[in-house]
Design goal:
The complex is a heterotrimer of chains A (353), B (319) and C (468). Chain A is mainly alpha-helical. Chain A has twelve helices and no strands. In chain A, helix 4 packs across helix 7. The radius of gyration of chain A is 27 Å and the shape is elongated. With 319 residues, chain B is α/β, with parallel strands linked by helices. The two termini of chain B are 30 Å apart. Helices cover 31% and strands 24% of the residues of chain B. The model of chain B has no long low-confidence stretch (mean pLDDT 84). With 468 residues, chain C is an alpha+beta fold. Chain C has two domains: 254 residues, MetI-like (MetI-like fold, Orthogonal Bundle), CATH 1.10.3720; 175 residues, Sandwich (Jelly Rolls). A five-stranded antiparallel beta sheet of chain C has the order 2-3-8-5-6. A four-stranded antiparallel beta sheet of chain C has the order 1-9-4-7, with no helix packed on it. The longest helix of chain C has 37 residues. Chain C is elongated and about 100 Å long.
Chain lengths: 353, 319, 468
């Protein structure tokens, strides 16, 4: 197929899927947005009119209740017209506008939430939170992966041994326990009972403070430890299975026959063969962590995308919600794309189609 | 000229359902010639080959016996010594099913050069040159070096595997079913290649196969394995023309011949024995057309006829 | 799969430690479900979120068995509803006596004492008396009162009243009658009847020895005047600090009940979504692989879209904009859950398609549907069975997460919901371990059991996983 055509096909795929996902999101969020906006308009208009009628020289209609109502309706309709809410969200004009703005990464302004610097532009708010999520989850994933790799290989060398059986049980267990619950327990134990770590993972000083970074890292310790501890078991199990499977292949026996030492076999042949699935899983879990991070970040109160989403839900700040969905989906799809390309690099059989 | 002496070799597999006696007391000696080991699936021939490489996978183990190469009992070497001195340098192997013998993620060149990396001082350009020479030796072009295994046909892969086995100029090459899964023409090519290399390079080939017709071309001595034991061994000519053991006779009858009288192809009744609990006495007795009382009770020893041996009670008086 | 095949597979399955472990946990869960469905009163399910239902239970009580592990025994919360009933006729009126006897051997005073009574009466309201006899013989008359007059035109008036130790009147009454008034007034300022009734003296301020242990009898007498007047029911609630298997939460809800109810709900969610999702995924994948070509392309794109969709976000948005019910959640989980399996089944179907017997049946003239259903699906099913088990924890955990965020179905008690309440009430900071741990442990156990079963099944059915 050739690398070029491969890339193009996958890109088209990605764009198509992204588009569809956006459409669906807008479909769900659209009506909600409109309702919220309309209610906002109403309360704004009401406030405006009552202010005007309380002034020293109120306009003429303030005397008559009916006239007041009429005025409110008029102004409300005018505002709604201005905001373009007259057309339903799925009208081509609005839809086109929405999609266009999303494509150019113009995510609008938030309703209520602000970034640390006070900006209410959704893009800024998200961009402020994104690195923190990446920091926590990428580090955790890499740590669990490394530990898992080492332990998994170790276990696979002696199948049926103690370590191996331990991994088979714990590996299974640790992946299925809900992280956020363990997080709560960890916070209760380490923060409240033992008082080693802070209970909320948000540093109390603003980002502009030079001591922010160390504080952030200190606050990151408990969530990092929790996530890594729950994560490495799963990796170890996966690696162990992969390695055992690969070790049974004929070419491993051949390599042993050729006199390749055990180290060379494990870290050369085996790892190379295991790389594609492992990398797939790594990238998937990295990008997936952006979504599932929600509850975990909320529990730990970590200032990342997940917590932002949680707060945005609570405040019904729709632009942020839509923006977050967009960003995380785009990242997820981009990562799948990267996987596909990397896979082609690692496994020469794939490139040939 | 290499001298290989195998004495009472036993390889058992200790599984959760019982102990499989895959190789149960095999002895033979080989002096500079080529040996063919023939037998049904499950007769233990592949295990024998692996034992010579000391590559028995768990839960198997070499339980007893000795393998003597040029006077040294190599079974007494520890793993490290075996790996650096014996494996691939003195004894190498062409594996069954070349389809999987090559790692799909490494190039042909990489895999050819691998033994050089661990067994010789050849690196870089010199190693590449040697690998390319090896390819040419088996009739492949040097451009194969950059290719990946999946780009090659079955026959080409088999040649690569052969080239890989020869690259260190070992004394013995064990070829385990080198022609299975290849079509007849390619089969012939591979056999011819092996013959040529045997002649030109002076290596001893131990060929393991279930296909008697293939062995006849290539080896000097033929051994027949049944249920983990070597039931007959002798020069190829004599085995073919004058098989002594009933099992050998049956095997040969099952091979269709182009020339000679048209006879009916016979199959051997019954199924191969369970190696966890083989039949008492002579292991072939349940399927043997000449079975006698003593066969069911007592294992026959080797009865020698000049340079041919067979373990069968039929020859109790004649030897 | 033949009969013999199934039996031997079963034997292989139970030989594995994973299979046995997973299965045992599952059996425990099923037992829990049965207990829940048979012995728990259904009102506890319906009224889970209704605080008034739980009024007679202690708030934030630890489990009763903590008393085993501590030297000082915390008072257990006692709801006594089986009095000894005596009735005698005294001339114009009847006297009905409900008496409750309890042996109080704890090391701390009860939190409060509440006596509820339910009466039916006609024109003349009954008189009510309540006395308590202490182990040392002292008798306190707590209450002497008359029930309120029934409103006019009501033939039978149903009235329920409460006598509570929180009332100041009660305290004063006891104080007057107490024969050991050698407590400084300041010490008694805030002491309520629940303490006074049970205390020995306040010479020493050591709480432990202040408490009088022994047999207490609470005797309530109702003097009824109408012939149809009835004492429907009485109950005496001695407020304790510990209660039940798993204690209670801030609303007084018995956590053991909540956890039990959560079991069938969780199993229902997980198994339903898993079965439907797997079923759809199986058929979809087979169809896609079987038809191949453009159809396959389109079908795969479609399932790609669904896989990429951020499910949690969608659920949240829906929960925020409309009401999330259990049924809706299950439907959404199924709709977004099936694509995962379809890739695997599709690749197997692609291989099967080339097999001769498939071609043969096509040549005979079998319809596509026939070929797929009769030939391909049965072949693929063994690979898929492990997946059914492995897909169960996902929906359960998703629902738990959603409920934890407060976005689940508010009417159904689930483990996630209990954790949500715990979080909202700050149970973490207050270290109320009995509230936080059980739901999470149940979630983990359930998830682990299905993963174990799934892995065990995988090893048995999938030959590649055979070796260890």
């Amino acid at each position: 197929m050739g690398l070029g055509r491969f890339v193009v096909t996958r890109t088209l795929n990605l764009v198509l899927v992204l588009f569809a996902v956006l459409l669906l999101t807008l479909a769900f969020a659209g009506p909600a947005t409109d309702n919220v906006l309309k209610r906002q308009v109403e309360s704004y208009v009401r406030g405006d009119i009552s202010t005007r009628c309380n002034m020293l020289r109120p306009p003429s209609f303030c005397g008559d209740a009916n006239l007041i109502k009429q005025q409110m309706e008029e102004i409300k309709q005018r505002e709604i017209q201005n905001l373009g809410l007259n057309d339903p969200w799925w009208s081509p004009k609005r839809l086109g506008y929405s999609i266009y703005s999303l494509a150019t990464l113009n995510l609008g302004e938030s309703y209520f939430l602000r970034s640390y610097g006070g900006s209410n532009i959704v893009r800024d708010i998200i961009l402020e939170a994104l690195p923190k999520t990446i920091l926590l989850f990428t580090t955790a994933t890499i740590l669990s992966l490394i530990i898992g790799l080492l332990i998994g290989i170790r276990a696979a060398r002696k199948p049926g041994g103690i370590l191996d059986r331990l991994i088979s049980t714990i590996g299974v267990a640790s992946g299925t326990v809900p992280i956020w619950w363990v997080g709560i327990i960890a916070i209760v134990f380490f923060s409240y009972t033992l008082r080693i770590f802070p209970a909320r993972a948000t540093p109390l000083i603003p980002p502009s403070d030079p001591a922010y970074i160390p504080a952030l890292l200190y606050h990151m310790t408990l969530p990092l430890l929790t996530i890594t501890l729950l994560g490495f078991g799963g990796w170890a199990y996966i690696v162990r299975n992969l390695v055992i499977g690969i070790m049974q292949e004929d070419y491993i026996t051949v390599a042993m026959a050729k006199g390749v030492p055990e180290r060379g076999i494990l870290y050369g042949h085996v790892l190379r063969s295991a790389a594609p699935p492992v990398i797939t899983l790594v990238v998937l879990s990295l990008s997936g962590s952006l979504g599932g991070a929600l509850i975990t970040e909320a529990v730990f109160d970590w200032p990342g995308m997940g917590r932002l989403f949680y707060t945005a839900i609570g405040a019904l700040d729709i632009p942020i919600i839509i923006g977050l969905v967009y960003v995380s989906t785009a990242v997820y799809l981009a990562s799948i794309f990267i996987i596909d390309v990397l896979y082609g690099f690692f496994d020469p059989r794939v490139k040939a189609g | 000229m290499v001298e290989l002496e195998v004495d009472n070799l036993k390889v058992h597999f200790f599984t959760s359902t019982g102990t499989v006696r895959a190789v149960d007391g095999v002895s033979f000696s080989l002096k500079g010639k080529s040996l063919g080991i023939a037998g049904e699936s499950g007769s233990g021939k592949t295990t024998l080959g692996l034992a010579l490489m000391n590559l028995i996978p768990s839960p198997g183990r070499i339980v007893s016996g000795s393998i003597s190469l040029d006077g040294n009992n190599i079974l007494q070497f520890n793993e490290e010594k075996y790996r650096t001195e014996v494996r691939w340098r003195q004894i190498s192997m062409i594996f069954q099913g070349a389809m999987n013998a090559l790692n799909p993620v490494y190039t042909i060149g990489h895999q050819l050069m691998e033994p050089l990396k661990f067994h010789s001082e050849l690196v870089g350009e010199k190693a590449r040159k040697k690998a390319e020479d090896a390819l040419r030796e088996v009739g492949l072009d040097a451009s194969m070096m950059q290719r990946y295994p999946h780009e090659l046909s079955g026959g080409m892969k088999q040649r690569v595997v052969i080239a890989m086995a020869l690259i260190l100029r070992p004394k013995i090459v064990i070829a385990d079913e080198p022609t299975t899964a290849l079509d007849v023409i390619v089969q012939a090519q591979v056999i011819n290649l092996l013959k040529r290399l045997e002649r030109e390079l002076g290596i001893s080939i131990i060929m393991i196969t279930h296909d008697l017709s293939v062995i006849s071309e290539l080896v000097d001595i033929v051994g027949i394995m049944y249920a983990g034991e070597l039931v007959e061994i002798g020069p190829a000519e004599q085995i073919y023309n004058n098989p002594k053991h009933p099992y050998t006779q049956k095997l040969l009858n099952a091979v269709p011949r182009l020339h000679g009288k048209r006879t009916k192809l016979e199959s051997i009744p019954g199924i191969p024995p369970d190696l966890k609990s083989p039949p008492p006495g002579c292991r072939f007795h349940p399927r043997c057309p000449y079975v006698m009382g003593i066969c069911k009770v007592s294992t026959p020893p080797y009865f020698t006829f000049t340079d041919q041996k067979a373990t069968c009670w039929l020859y109790k008086e004649k030897a | 799969m033949s009969q013999r095949g199934v039996r031997s597979l079963w034997r292989d399955f139970v030989k594995q430690p994973e299979g046995i472990l997973g299965l045992s946990i599952l059996i425990l869960l099923i037992i829990a479900t049965s207990i829940a469905l048979t012995s728990l009163p259904p009102e506890t399910f319906r009224e889970w979120s209704n605080p008034t239902y739980w009024v007679r239970y202690p708030k934030t009580a630890e489990p009763a068995w903590v008393n085993f592990f501590s030297s000082s025994k915390q008072p257990e919360h006692l709801i006594l509803q089986q009095p000894a009933v005596n009735e005698d006729v005294l001339g114009e009126f009847r006297r009905v006596i409900h008496s409750y006897t309890l042996d109080y051997s704890y090391d701390d005073f009860p939190n409060d004492i509440n006596f509820n009574y339910f009466l039916n009466y006609g024109a003349t309201p009954p008189q009510i008396e309540l006395r308590v006899t202490r182990p040392d013989g002292e008798v306190f008359s707590l209450v002497r009162t008359t029930a309120p007059s029934p409103p006019a035109q009501v033939a039978v008036y149903r009235f329920n009243g409460t006598i509570s130790s929180a009332e100041r009147i009660l305290r004063n009454t006891v104080l007057q009658q107490s024969s050991k008034p050698n407590c400084p007034a300041s010490a008694l300022n805030d002491t309520r009847a629940n303490v006074l009734i049970f205390q020995v003296s306040c010479d020493k301020f050591d709480e432990g020895s202040r408490l009088l242990r022994g047999r207490y009898t609470f005797e309530s007498s109702f003097f009824l005047f109408g012939s149809d007047d009835r004492v429907q029911k009485t109950e005496l609630i001695i407020g304790g600090k510990v209660f039940g298997f798993m204690g209670t939460d801030d609303l007084g809800r018995d956590i053991w009940t909540g956890v039990l109810w959560g079991t069938p709900v969780a199993l229902f969610i997980g198994i339903t979504v898993s079965i439907f999702g797997t079923g759809i995924g199986l058929i979809y994948g087979v169809a896609s692989g079987y038809f191949g070509g453009k159809t396959d392309e389109v079908m795969m794109r479609f399932s790609d879209i669904i896989i990429s969709f951020p499910l949690l976000f969608l659920l949240i948005i829906i929960a925020v904009s409309t009401r999330m019910t259990l049924g809706l959640l299950i439907v959404i989980l199924v709709v977004f859950g099936w694509p995962g399996l379809s890739k695997v089944t599709r690749s197997i179907a692609l291989q099967l398609k080339t097999l001769p017997y498939v071609e043969a049946s096509q040549l005979i003239g079998a319809s596509s549907r026939w070929v797929m259903i009769r030939h391909m699906v049965p072949q693929i099913t063994p690979y898929v069975i492990a997946s059914v088990a492995l897909s169960v924890p996902g929906p359960i955990l998703t629902e738990a997460g959603l409920s934890f965020l407060g976005l689940g179905d508010p009417t159904v008690p689930t483990w996630g919901k209990i954790l949500n309440d715990a979080y909202t009430f700050g149970a973490g900071a207050r270290q109320l371990w009995w509230w936080i741990m059980p739901p999470g442990v149940m979630l983990a156990l359930t998830a682990i059991s299905f993963v174990l079963i799934g892995n065990g099944l995988d090893k048995v059915l999938n030959p590649k996983m055979r070796k260890l």
